[in-house]
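Supplementary Methods, section 5.1.

A reviewer requested that the exact input to the structure prediction be made available. We therefore reproduce it here, unchanged from the version used in the analyses.
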Amino acid sequence: MSNFQIIYFQRALLMFLRIKKSSKRKLLFLLLLSSKIAQSQYANLNPGDVIDNFRLGDVINVNGEKISEPLENSELIILSFWSKTCSACITNMSSLDSLQNQYKGRVRIIPVVPVKSLTNKTKDDIRAFWNTNPHLRNVKLPTAIDTLWYKRLGISGVPTEVWISNKSKILAITSSEYVNKKEIDKILEGNLPNWQDKRKIFLDTEEAIFTINPAQPKASALGSGYSTMTRYLANVQTALGIDSSGNSLRFYAVNCSIPEIYNSILSELSGMISPSKFVPINFQIFAPDSTLYYKPEDEYENEWRSKHSYTFEYSKPKEIEKLEFYFDVLNELNKQFNLTGSLNKKNVIGFTLQLLSENEKRANEVRENVESKKINSSNIKITESSSFITMFNNIFGNTPIIFDETNDKMILQLPLYLVEKKNLEEIKQVLYQNNYRLKVASKELLFYSVVGK
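The structure derived from this sequence is encoded token-by-token as follows.
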């Protein structure tokens, strides 16, 4: 307990002793006091802070057995916060396991999952998940069962990696891409990192972004509306949206890349002018230096985004037609980014998502009874074809593209590992087992192309 907490407790205790009310009120006061002290003890920790009496909760191995995980002699500890529904966490486990094997006891990499207590059901669930998921079958990393460190470290999203020195000092809080041999070697050699904290605050986008820093935005008046642009806002979470409040219609983008901003507007336009439901208008950019718009593979997301993302806000009177508003936003973006944009059509080869005929369904059921095949893996439950198409097009980067012919009716359990592997043929097989097919088709699509000046 810090000196401040001790003083706080002493003063509060004196107040408590002076109370001459009923014992119920005294008890209530004591409970509130305990809660206040607990909150101050477990306030969020940050890089540079030293953790007093650092210990993990229960640690179990892949067989669900409770084990002791010695941390005292390790030069570096990496807590990898994950969950069973996080595909990026799961696909990264084999890489973490490989790193652990390379460094043995010098480095301890420990996945941490937020479960309140270790019960037999918890053990069984984790053991079953670990042994049936294709990405985890050869991984031998233990798992820590812990909710305390989620709270103390302010973890709001996974995967999140927390780097801790052998002196219990928090060195960094990063995304998983930083956990590689190059960065670990640097730290073991004594080169302390200066990475951006992965955790970010959420901006209150109900308020006008223009008021964040009036000295920074480049603003222009648009009748009774306005347009404003800033560069990267440090320690602020990415956000995109369109809303209408008061007498205005507003589009905003916070810490987004240029393609992300354009694609957000084009996705809104797609439902109004695209020739195919659920298929977005494709965005293309032609410029000499693509690294200004898309992150290179050898650069970390946080570092690249801090140099190449923007915060943009555009507002017009609410009476404006939405179609006109979206095109106005595109024109304003072109002006702000010094780009020239045009909308055009192009034929592409993609797939149509179709339901099998009744005869095909019956034949499929007979075949399934003969060669039934259960897939033991985490599944993504899909109840609308629009959800599947959006997910599919995101996975494959809109190539190939799916056009819907099912009237948005779909019930499907899609194994998570198929999504992670981007395995088109197996996805098609699972669809067929569930009475859907992907049929190759040529369709006309809209493209919005911009050219750098």
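Residues 1-42, 212-217, 369-377 have pLDDT under 50 and may be disordered. These observations are discussed further in the main text.
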